[in-house]
Amino acid sequence: MSGLDKRVGSYEEALAGLTDNMTVLAGGFGLCGIPENLIAEIRRRGVSGLTVVSNNCGVDGFGLGVLLEDRQIRKMIASYVGENALFERQLLSGELEVELTPQGTLAEKLRAGGAGIPAFFTATGYGTPVAEGKEAREINGRHYILEPAITGDFAIVKGWKADHFGNVIYRHTAQNFNPLVATAGRITVVEVEEIVEPGELDPAHIHTPGIYVDRIIQGSFEKRIEKRTLRA
């Protein structure tokens, strides 16, 4: 990797500098658009004490769920528990610190972090446990609470295509949280299905400009279905 060329040749190089007790922002929604190989590399590295910010925590045995198995996550900031039984057990036992955040608020906290906005007021959560310990204010007759922005040491993102400069396109619903996460990391790492030459991507189709991206790597993906339902 040199100059404007963001490509790296290995997952070890992609996550160079990741250490214990860091905050990792992870794109994806359920198992859709998750950076599955970067997650596997985090597991391989054995780092621990992580604060992980993601919409949820994968499923048992796949996605971010594998980091729960090895007790690598100290705190999870997410919108819901989902299909992950281990996540539920660690939450209920108190083994895992969990900060459940309304989904739209979580998205806005990441967007604000990427935009350099330290905090914002939202009506979501006012009068509920979500508001405990937070500043409240009445504006134009409606009550709001102050939510801090979120940034991270590393942002791990799954894209569809990218060029050498780190410009990224996401495919369909895999866009989900990935563009927000990509802006809010001190170091943003994107794994994609295909890396193309500069100029091959239509500028009008780029979702994440390369200015936000530090490293890109091409990988292969299982794209597991989170919950398969079949006719009887």
TrEMBL record:
Highest taxon listed in the record's lineage: Bacteria
Protein name: 3-oxoadipate CoA-transferase
KW RNA-binding (keyword) present: no
Family: Belongs to the 3-oxoacid CoA-transferase subunit A family.
Known pathway: Aromatic compound metabolism; beta-ketoadipate pathway; acetyl-CoA and succinyl-CoA from 3-oxoadipate: step 1/2
Any GO MF annotation of the entry: 3-oxoadipate CoA-transferase activity
NCBIfam families to which the protein is assigned, alphabetical: pcaI_scoA_fam (TIGR02429)
Reaction it catalyzes: 3-oxoadipate + succinyl-CoA = 3-oxoadipyl-CoA + succinate
Keywords, in A-Z order: Transferase
Pfam families to which the protein is assigned, alphabetical: CoA_trans (PF01144)
